[in-house]
Specification:
Blueprint: H1 2-13, E1 23-31, E2 42-43, E3 47-52, E4 56-61, E5 67-72, E6 80-82, E7 85-89, E8 93-98, E9 104-109, E10 119-121, E11 124-128, E12 133-138, E13 144-149, E14 159-161, E15 164-168, E16 173-178, E17 184-189, E18 194-199, E19 203-208, E20 212-217, E21 223-228, E22 233-239, E23 243-248, E24 252-257, E25 263-268, E26 278-280, E27 283-287, E28 292-296, E29 303-308, E30 318-319, E31 330-333, E32 339-344
Parallel strand pairs: 1-29
Antiparallel strand pairs: 1-32, 2-3, 3-4, 4-5, 6-7, 7-8, 8-9, 10-11, 11-12, 12-13, 14-15, 15-16, 16-17, 18-19, 19-20, 20-21, 22-23, 23-24, 24-25, 26-27, 27-28, 28-29, 30-31, 31-32
Length: 363
């Protein structure tokens, strides 16, 4: 009995282990639909806009998971959002609707039809056509500002930086345009197709199907650094002011120095990534091809968070970056189209007991 008591005292009085505390992200709501999504949802700060295969567009409140409105809108592409509007593209036209009500604000033709999702940025709405043109519209009223023949459509979302727009095209090129006029500044052709692109103030970071992650400068497109990885890059990279993060389909996630590209840390994943890393507060979140989202400390790569979704994650989750901490901040999308909102669990930090109930803690 004395040995058992001594063991209990040793456990209570032992200093806490030097491990990164695990944070649980708790499910707050689930939203399911009668039919499967036709494309990934579009998001703004308060709402998800889900295009369904039945020819409907559904707006889902991200605080509660309830449906704000539902309209008959047939689109095969992810909606774009901005300026209090949601933008969809049909076979030959672009439509802008009020984000709060779904009411139509304007319509404009898109000759040639869309080849990729619309893209909104700081008052501009960009559309890539099947003929390889890029059209720039004024988002407020749909007026065409310029249209350029590029020879190939977009294969991933464009990246804006400074006064320029950087375009990953289907013919292995990255083209830099002036956003105001569409004038070409520079272009480069790579040996393999670009899969996703992140534009920063000083560099472009992108993956290719040659199992590479590359960084080139925004001014002239010159090489900065290249990483050869064990599988194609998963999703898009992300960054903060110190590091750039990217995942690969050999079940790895890496953090490299933002300036030099030198490796800061890497860690293995328990299954294949379902998208790219998401930098959020004190987490680097990684969705997996399972029902799991795992989090890592951005500085060290040590695990620090977990979330379990209702179904297998099928698309890149969305992080709400500028909402109250008590609201759902992580939104996952399952293969079956379910949306699920997660919030951070707030609870007291466990502390060592000063004494056992009814017994002194010292011999």
């Amino acid at each position: 009995m004395a040995q058992i008591f001594a063991l209990l005292l040793a456990i209570i009085q032992a200093p806490p282990a030097a491990t990164t505390p695990q944070v649980s992200l708790d499910a707050r709501w689930v939203a399911a639909f009668e039919t499967l999504p036709a494309a990934a949802p579009g998001f703004d700060a308060t709402t998800a806009y889900v295009p369904l295969k039945g020819g409907q567009l559904v707006a889902v409140d991200l605080d509660r998971g309830t449906i704000r409105w539902r309209l008959d809108v047939a689109t095969a592409f992810t909606p774009a959002t901005g300026e209090g509007m949601v933008f969809t593209v049909t076979e030959q036209a672009i439509e802008a609707r009020d984000a709060a009500t779904g009411q139509t604000r304007w319509q404009t033709p898109l000759p040639g039809g869309a080849a990729a999702p619309l893209y909104w940025d700081t008052g501009w709405l960009l559309a890539s056509t099947t003929a390889g043109d890029l059209a720039a519209f004024r988002a407020s009223d749909g007026r065409l500002v310029w249209r350029r023949q590029l020879g190939a459509p977009l294969v991933a979302a464009p990246g804006p930086a400074l006064d320029r727009l950087f375009l990953p095209l289907a013919d292995n090129r990255v083209v830099a345009l002036l956003l105001a006029s569409g004038e070409t500044v520079w272009e480069r052709t790579f040996s393999a197709p670009v899969t996703a692109l992140l534009a920063l103030e000083d560099q472009l970071v992108f993956g290719t199907t040659a199992k590479e992650v590359m960084s080139i400068d925004v001014a002239r497109g010159r090489d900065r650094w290249t990483w050869t990885i064990g599988g194609d890059m998963a999703g898009s990279p992300d960054a903060d002011d110190k590091r750039i993060y990217f995942a690969s389909r050999d079940n790895m996630v890496r953090a490299v120095d933002r300036k030099s590209g030198n490796l800061k840390w890497k860690t293995g994943l328990s299954s294949r990534p379902a998208g790219g890393p998401l930098r959020w507060n004190d987490f680097l979140l990684m969705p997996l091809v399972s029902n799991q989202v795992v989090g890592f400390d951005p500085a060290s790569g040590k695990p620090n968070a977990t979330a379990a979704a209702a179904g297998e994650i099928g698309q890149q989750p969305y992080v709400r970056r500028d909402v109250r901490l008590t609201l759902p901040q992580l939104i996952t999308v399952s293969r079956e189209g379910q949306l699920q909102g997660f919030g951070r669990r707030f609870e007291p930090v466990p502390q060592p007991l000063a004494e056992l109930p009814g017994l002194p803690a010292t011999p």
